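Deliverable D4.2, example record:
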Amino acid sequence: MNDDVTPAPTATSVHTAWTPAGETPAGPPAEEAVIAACASVYDPEIPVNIYELGLIYAIEIEPGGQVRVEMSLTAPGCPSAQELPDQVREAVMAVPGVAACDVEVVWDPPWDPSRMSEEARLSLNMF
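Output generated by the structure prediction step:
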């Protein structure tokens, strides 16, 4: 057995930032970075990201890097119901400082178009 082997990262390992000097200690993830990660996910049927659509209801970030996201879908029968939460989890886990991410789909309050940002309304011609 080789004692020089570094264990592979696990889902609970904390990502650290890389600089020319090497890795730097990670702190809790920045809220802006978690929001940007959520905004990188798109519903395949709608050309607007899920953050601007108003599908992200809450983001909680713990000091240890645990992130909890509450999101909804445009409708209970949404064909992307299985893949969107997984895509959000994967995107958030890529943010430096995130140790774990729990994504919960909630239905209360139900989503409606009033939750969309003005940018989303303009993109979808919904004035």
